[in-house]
Write a structure and sequence with these properties.
Elements lengths: L1 H12 L10 E13 L3 H12 L8 E3 L14 E7 L2 E7 L5 E11 L4 E13 L2 E13 L4 H14 L2 H19 L4 E6 L10 H7 L4 H5 L25 H14 L7 H9 L3 H10 L14 H8 L2 H11 L30 H23 L1
């Protein structure tokens, strides 16, 4: 009877937990894996099995496999999603052939608050399949004694959120390796831990050079020939902006990105991908000054990431264009041409005379059009 009374007394002495909003912190880790020389469905099934728990298979969405397969795999963007009602940045697998997503929800109360999200976007290509993995952990911030106590217990058992997510990613990759002959780890990255890239060179050997690299190389100057150069009054030293825009959009599409996808543009800024950012700006389909779901624009994100090169690109794109109107073309009579204007040593006297005559005719045509 005495024991019963003590228990009752203790139970009555427990305070009621007040209803209050829980401050939550989010941790994210990423991995890139390449599975060479396997059929697409075999790679997709291996990824689903790896992310599945012992209770049942992880949910998967599947699209038709392209035929023929592209030479290079695509790449997901990032969108604002949620984990157990908590906002979280997740992968945008809309361009992937398959997506596997598994969510584990832990406690949702004042004493403890946690949960995990594991996601995979799968892109088959000519020499295998590439898998983009993202792991997200939410945990109550140490905003109170109770939350601090339970967070400390969790860290003792699982380690820091970055260590926990890295172990889980390695577990998934290990499960894939049990089913497939070769699985190459291109990158594993988590907060507070060094980046792992054990098979980066092997992955690079499987992929052809990105088309964008060839497109951005300036064409070699044409060698001088004996033929007389042709003059065009419409010629300009500035690059054709329309052609540049079209080329940038083609290259973004080849990389698995949408030139008008604002979320993918901001994700490129976050991961400090200066090449993709330059293509987005040249493509003209995004607003560099627009803010994302987190209330930050591209410049703010680039500064937070310490990406000075991207900050320079963004500031250059936002610089105001010169508003002063260009001066009209002068009406130069043939006799007013500066002496020696066409006296180029690489041209013969006959070619110099022909070039001068072409210039004079172009000026006359321009004068005639202005009079009309």
């Amino acid at each position: 009877m005495r024991t019963t009374r003590i228990v009752i007394a203790l139970s009555l002495a427990l305070p009621a937990w007040p209803a209050a909003a829980v401050s939550v912190k989010t941790t994210m880790a990423n991995a890139e894996v390449v599975i060479p020389d396997v059929p697409p469905m075999q790679a997709i099934e291996a990824v689903q099995d790896a992310l599945s728990g012992w209770i049942g298979s992880a949910p998967m969405s599947l699209k038709p496999i392209p035929d023929p397969l592209p030479a290079r795999p695509g790449k997901p963007g990032a969108v604002r999603g949620s984990l157990g009602g908590t906002p979280a940045e997740i992968l945008d697998c809309s361009t992937a052939v398959a997506e596997v997503r598994r969510e584990t929800t832990g406690a949702r109360q004042q004493m403890a608050y946690n949960g995990d999200l594991f996601q995979a976007c799968i892109y088959p290509f000519a020499k295998g399949a590439k898998v983009w993995l993202r792991a997200v952990n939410i945990d109550a911030a140490d905003s109170s004694i109770t939350h601090g106590l339970f967070s400390g217990i969790a860290k003792t058992i699982r380690g820091t959120p970055g260590e926990w997510l890295t172990r889980r990613l390695n577990d998934f990759i290990g499960a894939m390796k049990k089913k497939l002959p070769v699985v190459l780890v291109e990158r594993i990255e988590a907060p507070g831990l060094p980046v792992q890239a054990p098979d980066r060179e092997a992955v690079a050997a499987l992929l052809p050079p990105e088309p964008v690299r060839e497109a951005m190389v300036a064409p070699a100057a044409a060698p001088a020939t004996a033929a007389a150069p042709q003059f065009s009054a419409a010629a300009s030293a500035q690059p054709d902006k329309t052609a540049l825009m079209i080329e940038a959009r083609k290259n973004l599409t080849a990389m698995g990105l949408g030139y008008h996808n604002q979320a993918q543009f901001l994700d490129a800024v976050r991961r400090k991908d200066a090449l993709a950012v330059k293509l987005f700006l040249d493509g003209g389909g995004v607003d560099p000054g627009a803010k994302g779901a987190d209330g930050k624009n591209a410049v703010e994100l680039a500064r937070e990431a310490g990406a000075a090169e991207i900050v320079a690109l963004l500031e250059a794109s936002a610089a105001p264009q010169a508003s002063a109107p260009s001066a009209p073309a002068p009406r130069l009579p043939p006799g007013a041409l500066p002496a020696g204007m066409f006296m180029q040593p690489q041209l013969t006297p006959e070619q110099q005379a022909q070039l001068r005559q072409q210039f004079i005719e172009a000026v006359r045509r321009q004068q005639s059009q202005q009079v009309q």
